[in-house]
Amino acid sequence: MPEAPEPPGDTFAERLDWLFRTSRDPAGRPYSVRYVATELTRRGCRISHTHLSNLRQGRAPDPRRSVVDAIAGFFGRPPAFFAEQAGSQDEGDLVHALADPHIKQVAMRLADARLSPEGHAAVVAMIEQVQRLEAAARRRRDDQRHDLERSAAGD
């Protein structure tokens, strides 16, 4: 089973750095600061990769609320992630996750199955494979949509 990452720190910079170190793109690679800044800007939150890097390294003051919200949203975290005490983060994440009936169903099946550590690792590997397949399908759909938009604009 993969080793659990250390908990995030207490400062905004430590938590942001933790997100970059522990989050993976659909291909399984860490996100680059440049990619995240570009994606945040595309979503309406203008931020340069230099400023985002300075935030990550603690060389810039904590950002305004709209930037915190955008960064948290990109990484799939609630904005409170940047304000919570490190010890309560895992519990908050679990409560938030278990509110989703699909996640609760999977968790209950895992609890009932009483799998070995190897069995749990196999389930995690399957979930990661499904994530990669769905990400590839999304990319294909997005590419097709962009192609249709370009051809419609050329008409």
UniProtKB/TrEMBL annotation:
Disordered, as annotated region: 136-155
GO MF terms held by the record: DNA binding
InterPro entries for the chain: Lambda_DNA-bd_dom_sf
Full protein name: Helix-turn-helix protein
Native species: Micromonospora kangleipakensis
